């Protein structure tokens, strides 16, 4: 029973991956928001491409020409055209990428577009490999192999690479063991360049997850999924020094993060089926997307109860937690003009909202 339970959880949820509020002026010097924030709910018409052709599209990026790239469990990455047609992107097999379940289950997870907009970085939360992809040629290179799974990555303008380690797991089953009963094995690392040694910046996190920086790259934000909080660090990206400044936001099960055009911190909340914007300047939070239902919330409440009591909870990760969404909500990204929101998840379609 336990084996089948873990196998089922892997199928629907392979990424969750899994202080008292500080003064927000210490976390991110962002400009005051000028554009009103939307509020979206789930509608079948917003499925994109809408044909169920994706496979565990946990994260994605928007390219300058209007196409998008999302992770694909079987092939590494998948390119989606404006009309929704799509294909594998890059020859990941040539770079050592393997997905042969049940013996070897890959889990492409985090993806980020570098500042030059010519390269994409992708991390695998199962085996810890980080890949670099040339957008034009689609050439794939495996640039780093971490001892444990790598959840999400970010590369700053100096060329340094920052990434999160959710837990000390070498495969998906081990990762879910630490989702079921969390342990403080999460950490954040920095590499001065793509060839340097990874240096630990922070540790003792209960499932480190999404990672990003503000526009000025003076602050680093890291999701700690199992503790319902996003941490902030004050940075000197040239020296690599990171000073912890406190909790930037308390949000249920934070996953992927990004900074929007107005400097707000955008957070995906898988267990609540929401996307939330945190406005530091106005000391406020706003739900951009809410795909929850009464049935979802019953499971969420039970998850929280068990979490507070230190009880096992993996059996709660069933489709009832996210339906009618195509999969468990994990992240989001915007078009370059900020007028289109894509919501990623562990299912076979994205959600696309124009506003």
Summary, kept brief:
With 355 residues, this protein is mainly beta. The protein has helices spanning 2-12, 172-180, 294-309; strands at 40-41, 47-48, 60-62, 68-72, 76-80, 86-88, 108-113, 119-124, 129-134, 140-145, 153-155, 161-165, 186-191, 199-205, 208-213, 219-224, 229-236, 241-250, 257-259, 265-269, 274-279, 284-290, 329-334, 340-345, 350-354.
Query: pLDDT under 50 segments (min length 5)?
Result: 1-33
Strand residues, percent: 35-45%
Query: Quick one: CATH class?
Result: Mainly Beta
**Largest beta sheet: strand ordering:** 1-22-21-20-19
Question: Mind telling me which CATH architecture this is?
Answer: 6 Propeller
- Overall geometry comes to globular
Helix content: 10-25%
Number of helices: 3
CATH topology: Neuraminidase
The name of the CATH superfamily reads TolB, C-terminal domain
Distance linking N and C termini:
46 Å
